[in-house]
């Protein structure tokens, strides 16, 4: 018959070397469905008598800490803090995306303004060239009252 530790049954003691434990005592000392057993102690979290260092209920609830004193924060508290940090991170990411969207719109408008300025400059150059050509053609004809000929009446 196997023991809860998985090492097999103990060898029977020699006659007269002490009383053998009764089967009922062994059954009472073993908690069913608790896994491997370390020592007969009380759970430091819920104070129930178990053979393990922490009982399964406390572990399932996340109510455990490092026992060597490294960190006194319970696992469930860490988990809650992690979820809060994740939600804050999500909020910051949304704010960054919103700011980036505004910057993108600004960049698009700047690009449109720059292209319009370039188009205006090209149109001004075209008008100047047209005025010069008209001036050259009209040199042989009569000049305006001002002495210059303007193309379409636009003087720059």
Walk me through what this model shows.
This protein has 156 residues and is an all-alpha fold. Among the domains are: 23-61, no CATH class; 75-140. It has helices spanning 23-29, 56-61, 75-138; strands at residues 41-42, 49-50. Strands 1-2 form a two-stranded antiparallel sheet. A hairpin with a 6-residue loop joins β1 (41-42) and β2. The model is unreliable at 1-33 (pLDDT under 50). InterPro entries: UV_resistance/autophagy_Atg14.
Please describe the structure with a list of short key phrases separated by commas or semicolons:
single chain; 156 residues; mainly alpha; 2 strands; disordered N terminus
What order do the strands of the largest sheet run in, or round the barrel if closed? 1-2
User: Please, how many helices?
Assistant: 3
> What portion of residues is helical?
40-55%
Report the mean per-residue pLDDT as an integer: 72
| Beta-strand percent range | under 5%
Given the helix and strand composition, which structural class is it? mainly alpha
Beta strand count: 2
GO cellular component, one term: autophagosome
GO molecular function: phosphatidylinositol 3-kinase regulator activity; protein-membrane adaptor activity
Protein name: Autophagy related 14
InterPro entries: UV_resistance/autophagy_Atg14 (IPR018791)
